[in-house]
Amino acid sequence: METAVLVTILGLILTIINIADRLFNAKERVKAIGAKDAVTEVDISTIKQGNATILVQLEKMDTKMDNYQERLVRVEESAKQAHKRIDGIEGRL
After folding, report:
1. What is the pTM (predicted TM-score) of this model?
2. What pLDDT digit, counting tens, does each position of 23-38 carry?
3. Which domain of life is it from (predicted)?
């Protein structure tokens, strides 16, 4: 009879230890997941900032391209006028 009581008490003690261990490990797992999520959030934030920088640079390049296009049209018009003047001078000679 004493053996049965001893085995029962030992079983209860081991069950309590097992439950406590699972609870402790659950807290550690939650901490690890939280740390991993924090790193992921920082990485995503960094990527968003990089994208914003790229968009600003792209907008600046787009503005420059528009300016170059306007300048090219003016240069082409000027060249066309110069050719007309040259043709006029050649006609007089």
Report:
1. 0.51
2. 888 878 888 888 888 8
3. Bacteria
pLDDT surpasses 80 at 93? no
Mean pLDDT of all residues in 8-33: 88
Residue type, 19: I
* Cα–Cα distance, 27 to 33 (Å, whole number): 10
Alpha-carbon span 29 to 36, nearest angstrom: 10
Could you report how far apart the first and last alpha carbons of the chain are, in Å?
A: 135
A 10 A CB-CB count for 58 gives: 10
Cα Rg of the chain (Å, integer): 40
Query: If you search the block for the tokens 């003016």, which residue do you land on?
Result: 74
Q: How many CA atoms lie within 13 A of 1 on its CB side?
A: 0
Q: Where are the alpha helices (DSSP H) in the chain?
A: 2-92
